[in-house]
Each structure stands twice: as structure tokens, then as C-alpha cells.
Amino acid sequence: MTSPSSPRILVTGATGFIGRRLLYRLDAMGFWLRCMTRNPEKFSLPFELKNPPEVVAGDLLDPESLKKALDGIDIAYYLVHSMGGKNFREMKEFEKRDRIAAQNFVNAADQSGLSRLIYLGGLGEMSGSLSHHLASRQEVGKILASGKTEATILRAAVIIGAGGAGFEIIRYLVERLPVMLCPKWIYTQSQPIAVENVLDYLAGCLDVPETAGATFDIGGPEVLTYSELMKKYARVRGLRRYIAGVPFFYTLLSTYWVALITPVPPGIVFPLAEGLRSPAVCRENQITGLIPLDLISMEQAICNALAEEQQGPGRLVSRQACFLPEQA
Ligand SMILES: NC(=O)c1ccc[n+]([C@@H]2O[C@H](COP(=O)([O-])OP(=O)(O)OC[C@H]3O[C@@H](n4cnc5c(N)ncnc54)[C@H](OP(=O)(O)O)[C@@H]3O)[C@@H](O)[C@H]2O)c1
After folding, report:
1. Pocket around ligand 1: residues whose beta carbon is below 6 Å from it?
2. For residue 266, is it within any domain?
């Protein structure tokens, strides 16, 4: 049973890769939870939480629905993006949807008296040359921080976990292609992080008051190029792969190429692929002093993702065996 004095938490994006996993973490900590989704009738969890959550219909593009979602809530997690879409026009307008969604949420939060907001956005340099996706993630952070609620903004690069869009792209490419001639972005540096550590930070913020009203970069223990990350995946799986970057691959071409090989739809691949040209490395590591963690290595994170069981909180995407020679 949750204590009556325990903060009441709203998880937006509760059906997503991160949100669904976070539910289990917060439930284990004893919090009362409300899950927001546009389709509550489709909401399901792979196994039960200790305290059944309340499930509420909420669409960030429908301000009226947010009043009910935020009613009586103390803390909210914002784990939503608007990438995707049924047609080319919808795919292109994700930034506009994300801007409206964040502003609607701030307006509703200001009226509801929400005391704390935690947002997981994207890691990328703060320069003017950011991709549409990364610039949009920064813009959402700024909008969420502009209201009366104290906002914590965590910025992450690709998150390694079963079902995550970035990880699935890597997984399918390496599994399916023995020889990969890739766009030059495979030599861009990134600081990927295990999904377990992302959850540690998201949940850990609740215990550390200094995280309120601040922005933090979160990253794993290794800075790697995407080529190195794909090679690590191949090593974990015991696969021999040849990977090289070539100059003639443009974003649109690589989007359709990736969407052909992987199950990730073009509306998600395109904004992600466009962002891969920008380095995604932590500018500062302040969070490591506030929430000290044993950061999971990328080989272990890949192994964990592959080994995730069907009963686990994530969507099952793989039953492949993991192959790490030194740990066998
Ligand atoms: N995955 C990664 O590798 C990664 C890396 C860095 C940062 N992040 C950040 O982590 C956060 C969560 O990403 P994710 O990978 O978990 O995403 P995801 O699996 O694609 O889930 C997206 C969620 O957004 C919800 N949503 C979309 N539009 C909505 C709307 N109009 N109203 C209400 N809910 C809406 C969906 O809920 P319903 O469809 O149920 O309504 C779904 O639960 C995002 O802010 C993302 O930028 C992710």
C-alpha cells in the first residue's frame, strides 16, 4: 500500500520505452502512480505492479484532457516525443506538435499547482547547427522550464535497451548486414547510456533536492563513435562485421535504407538519422556527484538488452543468446 503522504506521480509517455520501465522502478519505491496515454483501452503491462496504477486518457495536444491528468498530482515525468506520423506532412511537423504539447503541459501544470517536473530530453551540443530533432528536444526543455513548476531536465544520447528506437536500429543493422557501408555519421562521437542507468537517474532525482530546477547531461562510462558501438554489438553477439563510412550517403537516402532493414518507421528514423551528425557527448558530469552510480558498460548494456526476458518490463524484441567471451 502507498502511504497517504507519499507524493502522487504522473507518468506521461507511460506506454513508451522509458515510461513503461519507469513505472516498475517508481512502484518498487512505493509511489502512487497515474499513467497517461492517448489510448487507455490499449494500456497493458507485462506483469503487475505492486500497487495498481490509475490510468487516465490524456493527449498533450488536447489541453482539456490535461486538467484531469494533472488533478491532485505532485510530481510529473515528461517522457513524450511526437516523432512519427502517418504521412510525410505529419512526419515533418513533429517539432510543431512537440512545441504545442510542451506549452499545453506547462499551462495545465501552472494551473494545477504541480510542484515538480522531470523531463528526459536529448543530448547534443547547444550550437545553431543542431538537427531538427535535437533542437526540438532542447526547445521542449526550455518550454517546460518556463512555467511555475521546478523542472529537472536530463539530456541523454542513445539509450541502450530492448525496444529503444536507437538501439533497435543498431541491432537490426548489425544482425542483418555482414558488410555495412554507412553514412559518415558512423564516425560521430556519442556517449550512450544503459536504460537501467537512465532509470536510476530519473528515479534518483526524487531523492536529491539539488536536482530541482536544473539541467544535467547523463551518459554512460564510454565515449564511442556509432561505428565503435556497432562493433561492440557485433562482439557481444560473436558476429564478424565489416563497417565503413562512405561520403555519398545523404540523410534521406540513409533513412530509407535504415527503414528498409529495420522495423523502425521512416518518420522516426529520419529525425534520428539527421541528429547523428552532431556529437552527443556530456558537456558536464555534475549528476555523477549528486546521484552516484555504477555506470554499466556498453557491452553489458547490450547484453542486458538482448537477454531481457518476455516477462520483463520492456517489449520483448530479442531472444538471441549473448556472447561475451571474457564473462562466459
Ligand atoms: N529512446 C532513446 O534512445 C532516447 C534517447 C534520448 C532521449 N530519449 C527521450 O526519452 C523520452 C521518451 O522516449 P521513448 O524512447 O520512451 O519514446 P517512445 O517509446 O516512442 O514513447 C513515446 C510516448 O509518447 C507518448 N505520446 C506521444 N504523443 C503524445 C501525445 N500527443 N500526448 C500524450 N502522449 C503522447 C506515447 O503515448 P501513447 O501513444 O500511449 O499516447 C508514448 O508513450 C523522450 O523525451 C525522448 O526524447 C529517448
Report:
1. 12-13, 15-19, 37-39, 58-61, 79-82, 101, 120-122, 137, 156, 158-159, 164-166
2. no
What is the rounded average pLDDT for all residues in the chain? Answer: 88
If one counts the domains in the chain, the total is 1
Q: Is residue 306 part of a domain?
A: no
Among candidates 307, 305, 304, 313, which has minimal Cα distance to 23?
A: 313
The pLDDT value recorded for residue 3 is: 65
Q: What is the pLDDT of residues 208-261, one digit of tens each?
A: 999 999 999 999 999 999 999 999 999 999 999 999 988 876 667 777 778 888
| Secondary structure (DSSP) of 302-313 | HHHHHH--TTSS
Residue 80 Cα, ligand 1 centroid: separation in angstroms? 3
The domain that contains 200 carries what CATH number?
3.40.50.720
Domain contains 12? yes
| Distance between Cα 300 and ligand 1 center (Å) | 24
CA of 247 to the centre of ligand 1 (A): 32
Residue 303 CB contacts under 8 Å (≥ 6 apart), including other chains: 236, 322, 324
| Range of the structural domain that residue 16 is part of | 8-157+192-219+282-290
* Rounded Cα gap, residues 28 and 32, in angstroms: 10
How far does the centroid of ligand 1 lie from the alpha carbon of residue 173, in Å? 23
The residue whose CA has the least distance to atom 38 of ligand 1 is 37
